[in-house]
């Protein structure tokens, strides 16, 4: 009985195996009917390690891009992250087949074909999307043209000039180059010129707008030879509205707030000191917050740094203005101002009196010496002998000293008078006038500096 059961089981297994083999054969026949000998003939004798036209000159590869998105543009790292669709076209004479329809193959069959060794030059990090399968496209046309498309997300370096930040324009590039094949083996070209890159017209960026874009063809020079290179340039302009609302308007309002102290009495020391110190500290915090979003290591003096420095200078100047005005009230009160002017007048009159007295004394001394020195009348015979030795002949020499001393005193007094007049011009007669002048000088200066600032950074 057991032998009968085992014999029946073997027969059943044999029947099932026959049915499976017949179903597999039928499936192979059906697949052969859809793609009869085409793929088999194309792959027969095909060597993927040899490029097309191996002995007949370089193979030309045409490229086009579709920018799906530009995710981030970082000023700190000086790079941008973009997702692109890279399409490459070339002709392989070994893949020519009869027919008028192209063959779309599974992306995994790319391992059986020769493809260009294209890479992104300034890429820091890149990856190929593989959900749900690797995002590759292979399409073969009857004339042997191969279309190979990839979906890539890449982070590319972009050197930025931040001297006019946030009113700057940045020009970034995306460079495609052959890694191993030089210009004798592979030639790159844009399939439709500047129109080879699409997707930028509908692109929405957070802080930038795309001003212009264009393509170019060049050659990369290395020690190992010349290599083909395609370059895509695009110009980004930063939107300044965010920075106006975030930085420029608050800093300008802080400057205006510091001017409120000019309308407060000089005797209100706590009120004026509170306004000055508060605005200075708030401006310092605003400056620190504006710099956190930018690289600390770069050497650029940015436009926003210049404006914040200007605002901080005006706020600090308003605080110093009160210190000067308050010091003038302590050292030169109103009661002493008139006394100071009266003393200046008395000093000037006294100097004039000194000069007059000195001149009178010199004339008196001259008159006293003349009758004492003049000899009595003598006969003519004795004059000839006395005149050489008479003291009257040597007396005019000491008389020359009083005029020299008088001139020196006059020069000294004139110099002192000029110094005193200069001090009187610089002297503030009324400390309350300092606030009156500041109410006009500070706003006018701030408006003029703003005109120069915006003219330079926007139009120069």
Compact overview of the structure:
This protein is α+β, with helices and mostly antiparallel strands and 460 residues long. Among the domains are: 197 residues, Neurotransmitter-gated ion-channel ligand-binding domain (Acetylcholine Binding Protein, Chain: A, Distorted Sandwich); 106 residues, Methane Monooxygenase Hydroxylase, Chain G, domain 1, CATH 1.20.58.390.
Task: Tell me about this structure.
Residues 360-369 have a biased composition (Basic residues). It catalyses: chloride(in) = chloride(out). It comes from Kryptolebias marmoratus (Mangrove killifish). A hairpin with a 2-residue loop joins strand 11 and strand 12. This protein is 47% helix and 23% strand. The chain is α+β, with helices and mostly antiparallel strands and 460 residues long. The protein is built from eleven helices and twelve strands. The longest helix has 40 residues, at 334-373. Among the domains are: 43-239, Distorted Sandwich (Acetylcholine Binding Protein, Chain: A), CATH 2.70.170; 242-332 and 445-459, Methane Monooxygenase Hydroxylase, Chain G, domain 1 (Up-down Bundle). The strands form two sheets. Strands 1, 2, 3, 5, 6, 7, 9 and 10 form an eight-stranded mixed beta sheet that branches. Strands 4-8-12-11 form a four-stranded antiparallel beta sheet, with no helix packed on it. Residues 1-5, 23-36, 335-342 and 371-401 have low confidence and may be disordered.
